[in-house]
Design brief:
alpha/beta, Rossmann fold, 2 domains
């Protein structure tokens, strides 16, 4: 059996939940309509396609939330996050409304269409909003588990879907880091679809690997208990992110304060990616391959006191 993509799993999960939860509504912006075709036929009053008007989609969703519904808004990441950022801030966070924003395409899954379709900064800007939850699953099954756990919790929740995925499903839990393996030299935090390549990169290295699928709220307790301190009392942390590198550094610092830290953030570099190409080509270009991650981690460990 062919495994579903994350976007296909999104359609299946929403279809299943809409049949049993009369409060769930979906607002589309002309993207992924084929994946929501069955729910749109079965529940036409709860599936609305506003066309290419993402700001309107978010505000319509807020109206549904004010009436007691649980909205899901879906589009490509730059159009769902960056274009209607003010609506997410004012209509949802300011009014303390619950809702769900499911993206596809980040950071550069649509890199063949250029920078207009890239969004490596989506998580960085959304984590500035009070009350926003951010989820980054690594497989379709993990999306299903995490979405079901959080979609009706009353908070605005961003779910970041990828074309890339890990090979194996993990028993992930919303709001929790999972301990993939333990070591003594450093702690590596791999976010979402970065886990497989990170595990390959640290093969043979004496490091702890933590798997992060809920970015916000961040699991401070597990990080503190699992991250060993070196012989000098300094904790060494490596962060492997599928978005702009350094995005989650504030979460690491807050979790481990006031302990002294050394942090290496590996992710999408904060520069304009002007080349055109698919996600694998962009990963190779910026060093987000198992080989590139290994080189960064080894260099970091050589300088760790």
């Amino acid at each position: 059996m062919i495994e579903p993509t994350m976007r296909a799993q999104m359609g299946r999960t929403i279809e299943d939940l809409m049949d049993v939860d009369p409060h769930l509504v979906v607002i589309l912006a002309n993207i992924s309509t084929g994946y929501i075709e069955r729910p749109a036929t079965a529940h036409p009053e709860r599936v609305i396609n506003v066309g290419i008007m993402e700001q309107t989609a978010v505000s319509v969703a807020a109206g549904f939330a004010l009436e007691g519904f649980i909205p899901v808004v879906h589009s490509i990441a730059p159009f769902l996050v960056e274009r209607p950022f003010e609506q997410i801030k004012d209509d949802f966070c300011y009014q303390r409304l619950g809702g769900n924003f499911i993206s596809i395409g980040a950071s550069y899954d649509y890199g063949t269409d250029g920078m207009t379709h890239q969004a490596p900064g989506d998580v960085a800007i959304l984590r500035t909003l009070p009350g926003m939850e951010i989820v980054v699953p690594g497989t379709p099954a993990e999306f299903d588990a995490l979405f079901r756990a959080a979609y009706a919790d009353g908070s605005p929740t961003y779910v970041r879907l990828h074309a890339q995925r890990n090979t194996l499903d993990r028993a992930v839990r919303f709001g929790r880091l999972e301990v993939e393996r333990s070591g003594s030299l450093a702690t590596v935090v791999a976010v979402g679809p970065m886990l497989d390549r990170t595990c390959e990169a640290v093969d043979g290295l004496d490091v702890t690997v933590l798997y992060c699928t809920t970015v916000v709220p961040f699991d401070e307790g597990t990080l503190r208990s699992a991250a060993p301190a070196g012989p000098t009392g300094v904790r060494s942390i490596v962060l492997v992110e599928p978005f702009y590198e350094g995005t989650l550094v504030p979460e690491l610092v807050a979790a481990l304060r006031p302990d002294p830290l050394r942090i290496e953030a590996i992710g999408v570099p904060r520069r304009v990616l002007s080349n055109y190409g698919g996600p694998d080509e962009h990963d190779a270009h910026v060093g987000l391959t198992a080989t590139g991650i290994r080189e960064r981690i080894e260099a970091f460990l050589r300088t760790t006191g």
